[in-house]
Automatic annotation (TrEMBL):
Official protein name in the record: M23ase beta-sheet core domain-containing protein
Domain M23ase beta-sheet core residues, every copy: 181-297
Pfam families: Peptidase_M23
Lineage start: Bacteria, Candidatus Magasanikiibacteriota
PANTHER family: MUREIN HYDROLASE ACTIVATOR ENVC (PTHR21666:SF270), PEPTIDASE-RELATED (PTHR21666)
Native source species: Candidatus Magasanikbacteria bacterium GW2011_GWA2_42_32
Gene Ontology molecular function: metalloendopeptidase activity
Length: 306
């Protein structure tokens, strides 16, 4: 050590003090940075706290919809349930089962009777009238045509209301089944009652020689017919006239036709017979014929749509 730096000199004591202070500072900082870490064992399982949501509006419960199965629509055959009631009365919802009927199609001794070789009308008269429901009226030959017959017990026909049968008031009403050999259904309504197309098709006035049953034609009894799209044909007799728009197209040309839609008005009922109005009591005579122009019963074969 140089002689000038005596350890007891003031300078040396100052240097030793600085060194001592610096050493204490280093030891203090070293203790502060040295931390004994705790043992790192497995962390405790902490459950997630359950927090109930506070709804801010109505709770909507989700509904799981079942798979939609689309049904294939049932396709009716071309001859099933296609005819509407041909009579229309304003304010009345007439159907084939509520429309008034004064005469039915005779199933006894006629062309529709499988045991008969007769046709219709006078040639098929057998002093018996049979309805589609099996009810029969019979008796001795009536004094004048057309002929109706009663039940043996004189009870009413169609008491089960299969149809709204009213009969002919002047000949026993509901207790007499009309007519022997009859090829269609009679709807007794006043002159100028609306007649509608029972189904879509082509409307023709009946020319002479067209009808083999009653020899009906437009000049004789104002007969017309509609050829329907499925091959069936409906016949109408005793009408007062066709509606003006159809008459204007067909006129006296029986080769012409007029396209009509089911439910549309086509004519007016009447009492036209033997070439004149008033030749028969007011009613509409209605027939249904198949593709071979053979008479069929729309009630027996279920051709009505309502």
């Amino acid at each position: 050590m140089p002689p000038s730096l005596n350890k007891n000199s003031p300078l040396m004591r100052l240097i030793e003090g600085i060194i001592s202070s610096f050493s204490r500072l280093l030891r203090s900082r070293s203790k502060a940075q040295t931390v004994i870490a705790p043992s790192r064992g497995p962390l405790p399982h902490l459950e997630k706290p359950t927090v109930e949501p506070s709804p801010i509006g109505p709770v909507i419960q989700e509904t799981v919809m079942a798979p939609v199965v689309q049904e294939i629509p049932k396709v009716e055959s071309s001859s099933a349930g296609f005819l509407r009631c041909p009579i229309k009365i304003e304010g009345q919802a007439l159907t084939p089962f509520t429309v008034r009927i004064s005469a039915i199609l005779d199933h006894s001794g006629t062309a529709i009777d499988p045991t008969s070789d007769k046709k219709w009308g006078r040639s098929a008269k057998d002093q018996k009238v049979k309805a589609f429901n099996g009810e029969v009226g019979e008796g001795p030959q009536c004094p004048q045509e057309p002929c109706g017959y009663s039940m043996r017990d004189s009870d009413e026909f169609f008491k089960n209301r299969e149809i709204n049968y009213v009969g002919v008031l002047s000949d026993g009403g509901k207790c007499t089944l009309q007519y022997d050999g009859h090829a269609g259904y009679d709807f007794p309504y006043p002159v100028l009652t609306a007649v509608v197309a029972p189904a879509s098709g082509e409307l023709y006035k009946a020319a002479q020689g067209t009808d083999s049953i009653y020899s009906a034609h437009w000049g004789k009894d104002h007969s017309f017919y509609i050829k329907h799209d499925n091959g069936f044909v409906t016949w109408f007799r005793h009408c007062e006239k066709l509606i003006d728009s159809i008459e204007a197209i067909i006129g006296s040309d029986f080769t012409k036709s007029y396209r009509v839609e089911g439910g549309a008005s086509v004519a007016y009922s009447g009492n036209f017979e033997n070439g004149k109005s008033g030749g028969t009591p007011a009613h509409l005579h209605f027939e249904v014929r198949d593709k071979d122009w053979k008479i069929v019963d729309p009630y027996q074969t279920k051709l009505w749509r309502d």
